[in-house]
Design a protein that fits this description.
Number of strands: 8
CATH architecture: Alpha-Beta Barrel
Order of helices and strands: EHEHEHEHHEHHEHHEHEH
CATH topology: TIM Barrel
Number of domains: 1
Subunit structure: Homodimer.
Bound molecules: phosphoenolpyruvate
Strand content: 5-15%
Pathway: Carbohydrate biosynthesis; gluconeogenesis; Carbohydrate degradation; glycolysis; D-glyceraldehyde 3-phosphate from glycerone phosphate: step 1/1
Enzyme class: isomerase
Largest sheet: 8 strands, parallel
Helix content: 40-55%
Keywords: Cytoplasm, Gluconeogenesis, Glycolysis, Isomerase
GO molecular function, one term: triose-phosphate isomerase activity
Distance between the termini: 13 Å
Strand order of the largest sheet: 7-6-5-4-3-2-1-8
Shape: globular
Length: about 250
């Protein structure tokens, strides 16, 4: 059985003090609720270490929102996987559509990051998803399959990997994929993993849905057979909304 996983992506929100306050509130509620699902939060880089300390006792995992694929050196503004691991991160989110669209990350760059993060012992949440134009042109499956295959090129072991399917048109827009639309793409991703790896790998892979998940739609999405929790943006900044989503996941 796959264990659902819910991760809050805080994006570029919250100062260090605000992050500690929000993380502490989430840690307390998760500690009291003891959900069956795995829970994580991804604050900004400056807040990682302090938030990690606030989460330590609670079992809530610390995630980073990005990384570089080199260990160190002349890469102004970048942060390496080695630094993230030392800051207490267990997960790193890679290939988020905002990184792809606003910062020009290609499948090749994402693949370098995936390989580096896994080699460093971090777990990876690999984000994939089509734009509205791609959906309307009927190439969703083609685009998502390429993102998965190219993002995982030369990755032999995906035990520590989670995939997040996030249709770009549903991120931060209030538009959610219907549970059937999401399930269709999740099933296709699982099929791709079976072709690239094997049946066991496909069966064990957790595939989160992301894109305007809210307390009101989380349960129906997470109830679909190939949806194993969510990657949550806006709703992860409000303790009660995030907790309602965590509870919907288990
Ligand atoms: C995200 O950025 O990963 C995301 C899913 O955002 P939102 O929930 O705000 O759509």
């Amino acid at each position: 059985m796959r264990r659902n996983i819910v991760v809050g992506n805080w994006k570029m929100n919250n100062t260090i003090a605000e992050s500690i306050e929000l993380a502490t509130a989430i840690a307390e509620k998760v500690g009291a609720a003891k959900p069956d699902c795995e829970v994580g939060i991804a604050p900004t880089f400056p807040a990682l270490h302090e938030v990690g300390k606030a989460l330590e006792w609670s079992g809530v995992k610390l995630a980073a929102q990005n990384c570089h694929y080199e260990n160190d050196g002349a890469f102004t503004g970048e942060v390496s996987t080695r630094m993230l691991a030392a800051a207490g991160c267990s997960y790193v989110i890679l290939g988020h559509s905002e990184r792809r669209q606003l910062f020009g990350e290609t499948n090749e760059v994402v693949n370098r990051k995936v390989k580096k993060a896994l080699a460093e012992g971090l777990r990876v949440i690999l984000c994939v998803g089509e734009t509205l134009d791609e959906r309307e042109r009927g190439v969703t499956e083609e685009i998502v399959t390429a993102q998965v295959a190219e993002g995982l090129a030369d990755v032999s072991d995906i035990t520590e990997l989670v995939i997040a399917y996030e249709p770009v048109w549903a991120i931060g827009t209030g538009k959610t994929a219907s549970k059937e639309q999401a399930q269709e793409v999740h099933a296709s991703i699982r099929g791709t993993i079976e072709r690239l790896y094997d049946e066991q790998a496909a069966k064990h892979l957790r595939i989160q849905y992301g894109g305007s998940v809210k307390p009101g739609n989380a349960a129906e999405l997470f109830g679909m057979p190939d949806i194993d929790g969510g990657l949550i943006g806006g709703a992860s900044l409000k303790v009660d909304d995030f907790m309602a989503i965590v509870e919907a996941a288990g």
